[in-house]
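User: I'm preparing a small set of examples for a lab meeting where we compare how different chains pack in three dimensions. I only have the primary sequence for this one, and I'd like the structure in token form so I can line it up with the others. Please keep the answer compact; I'll paste it straight into my notes.
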Amino acid sequence: MKVFVTGKLSQKAFDALSQFAEVDAYEADDPMGRADVEARLEGKDALVCILGDQVDAALFKLRPQLKLVANVAVGYNNINVADANQAGVLITNTPGVLDNATADLAFGLLLAAARRIVEGDRFVRQGLWTGWKRELMLGAELNGKTLGIVGMGRIGKAVAKRARAFGLNIIYTRDGDDKKTDDILKETFAATRVELHDLCRRSDFISVHCPLKKETHHLLGKAEFDLMQPHCVLVNSSRGAVIDEKALIDALEKKKIGSCGLDVFEQEPAVPKRLIALDNVVLVPHIGSATRETRAAMDELAVQGLIEAFSGQLPANAVNPESWEKFSAKLKTPASK
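Assistant: Understood. Below is the structure token output for the 337-residue chain.
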């Protein structure tokens, strides 16, 4: 079988994949253009791709022999899963292995925005510091305050664990309505489930961890920012379009909220000039999973799922297991779960 990889893999993952398949890899730092991806996919059975690669019906129609797409990310909003199901293409992602790294980054953004760390760094570097002053760079203390977590999945829980160590009280929103999960979260983190607008009203800090899908696009917009407290610190390390970026900038400029820390942006890598101009924001370039350990683990999980699928076993990290029968038929092997 033949595999095309649109980004560099860890050596361990690359070696494992190379032992299993013929690998064509693009290893430059710059992202590939769509036309180049389409050309390199000719004759390939599988695609190992990164978040910026768009995968849709047009690609499946052009390369009908494609059987599997391994997305080296936990989010897969770059892939049209309905189109994949129609084409009988199995999609996998890399959940679980990046929870701690992303939670660390989210909490780092929260601390940096709350305590004005980046602003203070600029202040020193610009030679503006003339000595200790009582009112200089006053920020917000975390202990005893309320953190609202939007999306209490794996990463949300990892953030909650860190938040408890800092003495924060936790409220949250999440999909699903099973009482058992809420009871476990109550027992583990002393966390209380609330509605989104209630979370916006009550939180001193808000951290966003929900996936981007139709229901969560612009989940936080003008109406939600109008409910937030003027000192509220907002952090987003999920997907940029979960937040209405224009409404966020308006809220920051008008001081309807205190500050924010962003790892993701609505039209990344483009960042609005109005956002860059603000002092009360911390901006980083989508590095939530950017630790050596986590990126290697993501690569290895992507390759593991691919090898399992082409060996006739439904991988645990399959996004669309409903396509397994069609995938198996394309593979011409008996379906096995």
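A couple of notes for your slides: The CA atoms of residues 289 and 295 lie 7 Å apart. Residues 2-95+292-331 form a domain with the Rossmann fold fold (CATH 3.40.50.720).

User: Perfect, thanks.
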